[in-house]
């Protein structure tokens, strides 16, 4: 299978420029992010790795528009981001499905903002359930799913909104290694069939190398970008290939 | 002639907790004496029984929830002194009081209670009547210990021996009936000063606006009093009063030999006025009053005077002196 | 800055600071105004809704002639004795119930069922049996606190996470260490919470018992006020009851926070 | 203001059914009849004491007298009707108080303008033992049914309002954020997130409110005017010095209260199960 | 550095024979472990890997003596295990420090059973705090520590009891990859300096290969031993060496 070429001709889908963020901790300002510059092109799969507390989640929250009050600029599809808006979806590390709604109803919520006709709506929900391999579990409540299944339902809920950019905050963090490998392949499949741009935070370097076109390595105190490592390997990647192991080592070294 | 839509008469229910009264009110209510006065008018008469006795009726007056009220002289004076626009229009007669002691107690009469503990409801008509009863026996208030108790606690307090005697109204008779206690004092066969004295009180604004209606209410009540004082109605009286929960036979036994005419005497006579003055003294002594009250301001005897003449009852009930003797 | 998501709805807009600070006083002031107005305009008789100023005068009067202090001391003494007895008993029985299933099975259901009998149900029975002594008041207050402390204690012990108990067992602590370093600190916060609830319940029981079967104390002060048709005394009584209840609760809340802070060492 | 503070709502105490946490010490505990041991012993002692007349027979009535009074005694057999009367009173008082509580809880929970202006006053008023309101309430609304209904409504109002308020306030930020990211429309947000998320808390409030209102019902019958119902029956028993009637009334109010509590918690778990809120 | 030779001459420190365990689930017996046979020699580092729910934690609980009621035999230092006893320590996945005690006090609890003289006691606590790199945090409460620090304190609390066998239940599960690598090296150091036998459960195959003399692969439903893979590599191991990658792959294959 061939590597996905990084498209460079068109303007970036997301572009962060000189982005900084401070939080108040104990009344004192505490710089979480400093001078982040990052462009993400349409259709790519970008991963962010970095030590705990370096501001990865904070960065995603800014991009999706949950938090404002940053300095610098965030431009999405050419327009500055000022808050929540269409085109950007997000799946959280903890799945955040609503426990009182079935899988189906949870995913259906993703269509509330656009409110398509009923028939189309049912179809979209059905298809996305199939996409994440949950057919048969439409009527199940989140409590009746395993951690991995719930995570997939959450991804489907984010996907069904048809975002051009999907932000994933450690989507596989809760899974054990076997399930994790499986879900990595599922993500890859979704990414390739849906042609959506993925920006994923992970703490597993191997995962980042396995999935992404590019790995962004962040450093902490304050959170900043240390390196951007393009991964030019064809999918599906062999984790024990020399090139893979080398890239992995390079990123781990960058991290230390 | 202008008529009110409704006339509400507030009353203290019987001790057994049923919405009926004994005495004059019981007869007037059951035999519809007041209603009869308004036959030719659109006026409706309602009887409102308020537990919580005096305080509740005062509150009802303040709320304009009743036009008339029948309750003790003491609580009605307290209400009046605090600014309720009330006037006494008719006496009600005596509420019998009793003292009971445990069955096996050596106490035989009030005299034996010197130095003992007596339970009663403080700052009520009963407290006041107890002091009068003790005075009759030459016992000063500081020669006994008066223990304050709330209504429902009187019965267990004496049966459990916590006090040597309790002093209150007819609810104490339950104990005798159950063989737990014996009555050592009853105001029924003694001095009327030792009975609780009550009155009918009316709203001043009502009196002024509807003098004719007020007159008719007083007339009706007096007719009821007249009826119940007739010896041939004695048995029927007991049956009416039994509606409040005591058996007619017990009533008959209790009131054996008691003259209902002198027990239930509605006159606003010297005796009544004397009782009002004594109540003021008692209230001041017990610090129940704020400021002064003028007893003369409390009653309005125009209706009573007119009725008693109109109905020819001038000489029916005995006229009494301030200390309760028949003139 | 946290964005739009933190509020349930846009309804919860941000206000200017001074406005926000003033808001809590708007309603009480409005009520006070309405109250005064109701009296001035004669919507209700001042006899059953004494004007605020009158309440204040009565308060000062009752304060100066010592009636408030006297009634309050009586009430306080009753609650001190009743609560101490009830809480001590609840603590001991609760510990036994928490530690021993057998004990719990024997006493638990019966005690929990008896707990459902309200104060107003106990009172006539106790008064009929024991007469009208101070003991009845202590027993009723003690009963109100006993069961809440008992249940809090038993549940606190039982709810110590199994995981922590396992960790404690693996360390093979000596019995005294188990008690002082594990059981007591582990259950203290919940027990203090139980004490707080129990004190609230005891206060309620006190007021009821004083209003229904007593001739002294704050509760009776109100009953007396009603008897002599001085509803301003009643309102003063209510205010004292409210303030005292509030203070007791705040003190316990403070203790609660202290215990959980000291114990868990946050901050 | 915490909802759990409201555990003590009225004349009595609301005690949640204990959670069955893992036990540490097991002994005889598995032997089922153990639970009945204490009640049987108490009943036996009571019966023996009455049988040998260890107290005055008027006070120490035997258990069977109390039991039989419910069927044979003219005053005692009114206990059935009394229970129905009390329940009817509870139903209307609770309906009024709980609706008002829900409305206020909704308002203060959702709109911070209402929250800031109402909640502190409510918190302060709550500190006044409700029973202490009775003299004032009777002064304002008379000595009858109106005051009783208001009193019962108040006993239900406070826990319902406070728990509803808390339930809305405590909706986890995580869910609110998820809803924002999905850009739910306000109505969907209310229907799909806010109300279901607050449901358990609201149920707790209704549960506490119901049990509290039952005690409030009895208190109101006992202390406000002449009343029918179980409270009235107990007063009657006291006035007539009939210990058997008093005990019968207290037993009935306890059993009915227990039933109400159990029914409420069943309803709650049914409701929550139906909303996928518990496993 | 040379590989640690597996000592075979002396009798095993721990020996499990035909061990089975059933739990009641919904009143029905459910077999958690079946016919486990395992010998562990003194001074070795053994890891257990296996899918979630295969009974790894249950096995450790049996060995330490928290649960009894098994079938078969567990012999420790030649004597059958009937309950908790000296010589066996355990650190749990969640640190289980007591939140009301400081780091120092928590670790001190480990000495309560043997109750050495005060001076010696203080010294042991100090040394173990240093050993896990927490000097300076003696007076901190668990809530003031990061997840990794709390984990290290818990390991110190288990170590200070001077067990001959230390059971570790996913001790590094809570850590991010950087801290994890660091702690792996710390564990190795402790193992080598303290000459304690380690039996560690992990879900990270790489970690198992990196640390152990032997990896026990478990299967599930019911929990049983699928394979025992000796790791004959010298420490410190290179994670990208061919031998390492091969062993890792072999274990992952055994797992699937
Ligand atoms: N609301 C907030 N108020 C104050 N500080 C905050 C807030 N949110 C995050 N921070 C701080 O910002 C920093 C970055 O947090 P963030 O959650 O973005 O880290 P992260 O890289 O996602 O870490 P992890 O890998 O552990 O999830 C942390 O130091 C955190 O303490
Ligand atoms: N106390 C118990 N009662 C009933 N079943 C139990 C109990 N403890 C564990 N089990 C069951 O035993 C099995 C093994 O559990 P265990 O915790 O040992 O698995 P594990 O291998 O440690 O899994 P993980 O990797 O997820 O920690 C599981 O199926 C679990 O449901
Ligand atoms: Mg994060
Ligand atoms: Mg485990
Ligand atoms: O309150 S009395 O009317 O009984 O005095």
UniProtKB/TrEMBL annotation, chains A, E:
The ABC transporter domain covers: 14-245
Q: Which residues cross the membrane?
A: none
Keyword Cell membrane on entry: no
Enumerate the PROSITE patterns for this protein.
ABC_TRANSPORTER_1, ABC_TRANSPORTER_2
Q: Which GO terms describe its molecular function?
A: ATP binding; ATP hydrolysis activity
List the SMART domains: AAA (SM00382)
Aminoacyl-tRNA synthetase keyword on record: no
| Keywords, in A-Z order | ATP-binding, Nucleotide-binding, Transport
Q: Which domain of life is it from?
A: Bacteria
Checking Pfam families in the record gives: ABC_tran
Q: Which PANTHER family match?
A: ALIPHATIC SULFONATES IMPORT ATP-BINDING PROTEIN SSUB, TAURINE IMPORT ATP-BINDING PROTEIN-RELATED
Family in the record: Belongs to the ABC transporter superfamily.
- The name of this protein is ABC transporter ATP-binding protein
Say which species the protein is native to: Aureimonas fodinaquatilis
UniProtKB/TrEMBL annotation, chain C:
Which PROSITE patterns does the protein's record reference? ABC_TM1
Q: Which family does it belong to?
A: Belongs to the binding-protein-dependent transport system permease family.
Indicate the secretion signal residues.
none
Localization, UniProt: Cell membrane
Q: Which Pfam families match?
A: BPD_transp_1
Instruction: Give the species.
Output: Aureimonas fodinaquatilis
Q: Which residues form the ABC transmembrane type-1 domain?
A: 68-252
Q: Which GO terms describe its biological process?
A: transmembrane transport
Q: Name one GO cellular component term.
A: plasma membrane
Q: How does it sit in the membrane?
A: Multi-pass membrane protein
Keyword Transmembrane helix, does the record have it?
A: yes
Q: Which residues cross the membrane?
A: 21-44, 72-99, 111-132, 228-248
Q: What is the name of the protein in this document?
A: ABC transporter permease
Keywords attached to this entry: Cell membrane, Membrane, Transmembrane, Transmembrane helix, Transport
Q: Which SUPFAM superfamilies does this one have?
A: MetI-like
CDD domains per UniProt: TM_PBP2 (cd06261)
UniProtKB/TrEMBL annotation, chain D:
Q: Record keywords: Repeat included?
A: no
Question: Residue ranges of the ABC transmembrane type-1 domain?
Answer: 83-264
Taxonomic superkingdom: Bacteria
The annotated topology with respect to the bilayer is:
Multi-pass membrane protein
**Cell compartment(s), UniProt:** Cell membrane
What single Pfam family name could you report for this chain, choosing any that match? BPD_transp_1
| Transmembrane segment boundaries | 31-52, 90-111, 123-142, 193-215, 245-264
Swiss-Prot/TrEMBL keywords: Cell membrane, Membrane, Transmembrane, Transmembrane helix, Transport
Q: InterPro entries, from UniProt?
A: MetI-like (IPR000515), MetI-like_sf (IPR035906)
Query: What cellular component GO annotations does this protein have?
Result: plasma membrane
Biological processes, Gene Ontology terms: transmembrane transport
Has the keyword ATP-binding been applied to this entry?
A: no
Q: What protein family is recorded?
A: Belongs to the binding-protein-dependent transport system permease family.
Name of this protein = ABC transporter permease
